[in-house]
Amino acid sequence: MSSLLGDEKRKSEEYLTRLKYLQADFENYRKRTDRELKEREETALRGLVESLLSALDELELAIDHAHKSEEVGELLDGLKMVHKKLAAALGTAGLSRIDCVGKPFDPSLHEAVEKVQGKVEGVDVVSKEIRPGYTFRGRVVRPSMVKVELALRARGGQEAGAE
Description:
The chain is an alpha+beta fold. The protein folds into two domains: about 90 residues; about 70 residues, Head domain of nucleotide exchange factor GrpE (Nucleotide Exchange Factor Grpe, Chain A, domain 2). Helix content is about 55%, strand content about 25%. It has two helices and eight strands. The strands form three sheets. It has a three-stranded antiparallel sheet with strand order 1-4-5. The protein has a three-stranded mixed sheet with strand order 2-6-3, with no helix packed on it. It has a two-stranded antiparallel ribbon with strand order 7-8. α1 packs antiparallel against α2.
């Protein structure tokens, strides 16, 4: 019986040793994946910064040119070029502008800063964009500030706009 007890004790010690190695391996794996994730985030951010640097350089050139030139048209062209590059760089990273004018008002995408009574029944509609909103990879990072045209609504046989 003591040999059976000795065998079980050795098996138990072997299992404990395996468990300790497994725990160490898992901890090493966790540290490695955390490190790799940080490296990927840094690489992605570095790519975004590099693409924004050319837009920053062009903006500085446009500002320098504006100080030296009386020509407003050239400055405007330069600023448009910088805007286009900056928008493209951010778009590549996953930023999208929210299309809102003429669309139904959606409080998850739009922030109503002005409301006017409309003349049409149905749904509230965005009539003007005051400040653009953006999504980043499908998530709203900044809602659009908008002017909303409120739909006519019937109240007890009377329209809401006729008060």
